[in-house]
Amino acid sequence: MTELLLAALCSVLVSLVLKWSKSQGFTAIALISWNYVAAIGLSAVLLKPNFSSLQHINYGSWLAFLALGLLLPVIFVTLARSLHHAGLIKTEVAQRMSLVLSLLAAFLLFDESFNWLKLLGIVLGLGGVLGLILSSKGSSKPVGALKHSSGLLLAVWAGYAAVDVLLKYISTLGYSTSTALCASFGIALLGLCLWQAIQRQLKLLLQPRHIGLGLMLGTLNFCNIWFYIKAHQQLASNPAIIFASMNILVVILGVIAGVVLFQEKLKKSGWGFVALSLLAIVVLYYAKL
């Protein structure tokens, strides 16, 4: 289970780096661009994507890859903004509980089997994440700021679910996850560079500090994927354990980091919604057995 712990730790470290970088004057979009440079290189070497499968790709498949490639950097930038405005704890829960939307989409779009435990887990998950998103830290926070942070959390929640759905759809077209990821990383990097060129921010992009931290961010991001794959390979007979443990570990580590490193606070109801989200993951674990 060492790989699983490392995957969860890398996932939380990505959020920590993004949140810390904001206070140090880094620009998220520049860091995320270099993140994709590292991710592309590591994916090409370690995941060994089958690029030959893209030689005869049709129009519909290209649209799916393009959608994924454009969505990934948008949701990554949104994650960075959510970490700054809504906090680490809420953002990590929203990101992890995107799984309930993914399960709903799998049922509605891919004819995945359903049972009463999945339904219960989805209901608990929806209650947990929506309650947490709509809860406030305190009355001192302006109403406009609360609405803004809630909107960012909703975007993170829905965005990561959309990424998962697109990956599942691409897999139904016959492309491996490694090929989909590497190709979409390339599209994401191209889109980000074009955007920064239009905004005349290429000088900022090429600053050594952004290059260094961005490459580190990409390495952590890829290590999250790599160790998660390794954990699945070790427990191939019971992927439900990986599914539940990964999400629970990330939420718990995110809560600890938010409280200890950033002194984040939640109301009692907020902690209740975190607990409800964790309960949903446990229920979904049993639903997948």
Write up what this structure looks like:
The protein has 289 residues and is mostly helical. It contains twelve helices and no strands. It has helices at residues 2-23, 28-47, 59-85, 88-96, 98-109, 116-134, 143-172, 177-198, 202-205, 208-234, 239-262, 268-288. The two termini are 18 Å apart.
Show the helix and strand layout.
Elements: H1 2-23, H2 28-47, H3 59-85, H4 88-96, H5 98-109, H6 116-134, H7 143-172, H8 177-198, H9 202-205, H10 208-234, H11 239-262, H12 268-288
Helix pairs in contact: 1-3, 1-10, 1-11, 2-3, 2-8, 2-10, 3-4, 3-7, 3-8, 4-7, 4-11, 5-6, 5-7, 6-7, 6-12, 11-12
Keywords:
12 helices; 289 residues; mainly alpha
- In terms of quaternary structure, what is this? single chain
Average pLDDT rating: 89
Low-pLDDT sequence parts: none
Tally of DSSP helical segments = 12
Number of beta strands: 0
Anisotropy-based shape? globular
What is the first-to-last residue Cα distance? 18 Å
- Helix-residue proportion: over 70%
Proportion of residues in extended strands: under 5%
Q: Summarize the biggest pleated sheet.
A: none
Secondary structural class: mainly alpha
Gyration radius, in Å: 19 Å
The helix/strand series, from N terminus to C terminus, equals: HHHHHHHHHHHH
